[in-house]
Amino acid sequence: MKKRPGVVAGYAMKQLFRKPATIKYPQGDLVIEHNYRGKLSYNPANCIGCNLCVRDCPADALEIINVGTKENKAFECHLSLGHCVFCGQCVDSCKKGCLALTPNIELAGLKKADFKMKL
Amino acid sequence: MNSKRITIPMGPQHPSLKEPSCFTITLEGEKVVNAVVGVGYNHRGLEKASEMRTYIQDLYIIERVCGICSHTHSTAFCQAIEELAGVVIPPRAAYIRVIMAELERLHSHLLWLGIAGHEIGFDTLLMYSWRDREQVLDILAMLGGNRVNYGINTLGGVRRDLEPHMVDDIRQVLNYLEEQDKYYIDLALRETTLAARLGGVGRLSHEDAIKYGAVGPVARSSGVHTDTRVDEPYAAYSEMPVNVITDNHCDVFGRTVVRVLEIMDSIGIIRYALENIPDGEIKVNMPRKIPAGEMLSRTEAPRGEDVHYVRSNGTDKPDRVRVRAASEANWHGMAHMLEGDYLADVPIIIAAIDPCYSCTDRAFVLSDGNGGEQVWDWQRLRQYSLDFYRKRGVDASKLKIAKQ
Amino acid sequence: MAFFNILIFPGFVFLGAYALVLAFLDRKLYARLQNRQGPPWFQPLADFLKLLGKETVIPVDADKKMFVFLPVLALAAVTTSYLYIPLWGTSSLYPFEGDLIVILYLLTLPTLCFFLGGWYSTSVYATLGSVRVLTQLFSYEVPLFMALLTPALLAGTWSLSGITQYYAAHPLYILINIPALIVAVISCQGKLERVPFDLPEAETEIVSGAFVEYSGRLYAIFRMAIDSELVVVCSLIAAVFLPFYTGVAIADFGLYLVKTIAILFIFALFRSVMARIRIEQMVAFCWKILTPLALIQLIVNLVLKGVLA
Lengths: 119, 404, 309
Hints:
Mean pLDDT of chain C: 85
Largest sheet of chain B: 3 strands, antiparallel
Largest sheet of chain C: none
Low-confidence stretches of chain B: none
Helix content of chain B: 40-55%
Oligomer: heterotrimer
Number of helices of chain B: 16
Shape of chain C: globular
Number of domains of chain C: 1
Strand content of chain C: under 5%
Number of strands of chain B: 8
Radius of gyration of chain B: 22 Å
Strand order of the largest sheet of chain B: 1-2-3
Mean pLDDT of chain B: 85
């Protein structure tokens, strides 16, 4: 095959008239799949406090705490975003469907304390 | 030391290295006469971490052995455990694993093509191939939920099913990629500057490839007919039309050709799998406690053969996990490939094996045979490191640091 | 008036500003050729100001005086050479017989500064980079000089203003010089240290070569010298090879901007479609292909000179 320098030139010139493939991130429109694994959400209504999610979490990011009394249980889920690896195993482990992943990925914060949160 | 020779340390921090590692290179003019490969800056204690957690938790640790070939690592690990537990995964799950593995190969090879372009100053190739890779990542995110650590494998099957509307999206991306890849093949064969920079550098002859135990595209580009997908079919590969692509250039150019042709082959495999995917369950139940035993499992990562060894002891935690990533096998021939080439070629030769530094780093302890344990204090460690570098011609003890 | 010319227009301030504009256009075009967004218009200025504000570190082993002096000398040489290039009309501000030679000499000075700067910073990477700077200088300088001097040969004058006047009077003669134009554009890539000849600062190989120890203000001055050199080289090629004028000063100035940006576009295209080649390939290419081509042009122009006379 005949070799020559600058084979890309024609293709590169075409790119001048194409829409750039990158977006200006904070302003641009970011397309996220609806089933993307982002921040966890928690619905305490059905939670029985079995702690299966906590046991299966590979990063020790989750904590389910009983804030009510022994008879009248009320659960809170504490998540450490800095530890979470967004694998979604807790969602699979939950038998009651209390946990779900949302496509929210814009989770950057300025303070370390921001990453520890109550869901 | 010969006065004509200079020793330069490439790394631990260097723009061409994406992760820390140190190549001590002795030069005569611009020619490399000696190279010492120093990996080990990125030890993460993965194996020990896996041994301290349950099998389900390990899945996500093993997946993070490598950022690029995450799926093959977790497939190998899952296979070993499923085999130990005596579980057979449903055929649909096996097909989905194959589709993911091949999509991963697509994005890994496109990534490599871009890196190779960047190392030789051809940034336009980097931008184009990474733009196309982005399409694959979008598909992977759609299928798995994440862009790189998809987390689709689970013990006993896969976690997410392939929806019918995804199939059309995947086919569309495959058509686009096929067209683009044809362009890249054409480019690799016709561009003079690419041929000038890639041809004849980093030579690894057929005999040396076997001697040093090279795997994956590095071995295949030296004419070694090896591919775990064919040699020992796993998942649904026994039904797939896999072609082993070999090349006889034995150099970086050959490795490029093998990879761009493998992209074409992978597209064919995914199309076949999408066409013939059986219906049914995607997961079978797995016990939490795995019966005692040991298992070796092999998969073909984009970079070569991954080997996982798992020993279980009847509890829900593994007794021993050993991961041999593909790059680990390819490091051995590196010094040989570097010697005799120009300094300018060092980055591309290193990049040509598609190295993964943190995947390979393992710690081991040399015992004296009597069970004696060695404890080194800070002073002794420091002295050891100074001696280590002095032997390689770098005297760090006299390093002066500029004062303000 | 001379003071205004040297400091404000077309000297230091205008050159600096135009250098930033061209640097932006270069980066934007490069980005768009790669199907990217590219930087915002103020990016080169922001980079420059940021570098100015950074700490300047001078290595202990480096020769302090030379280390500080060399960036300034590089920038001064480039700025001086700009004064002898015609920007509007066919005459520069201070034309004299032989100013083309002076411009070429002044344009070699920054390259020497890069070499010495790398050499005096006594780092391994910087030393390797400076050796490459010098090796490269010996390869591209001969074809570049021949390519720029052959049009002068036909015009029969060593003055840049004289050459532009000659070609403005005989615009068709520039067609003869097209091979020289090609040689000049290619060897300018070496002079400006751009892909495919960016070996002296090859980021992935020798980090950034001769500049590896430079930081803060000194590096900012070096960058400014490199950006200004881009303007000067574009203007030089425009003056020698593209002598189209309207006769109105403002229109000519606009024409000058168009010409330099057109040349910049070719430079950006060059940069984006090729891989960096190795030093021995670069030397071989310059001596085996570019120099013979320039020699042929030289012979053609000599013969034509006889025929036309």
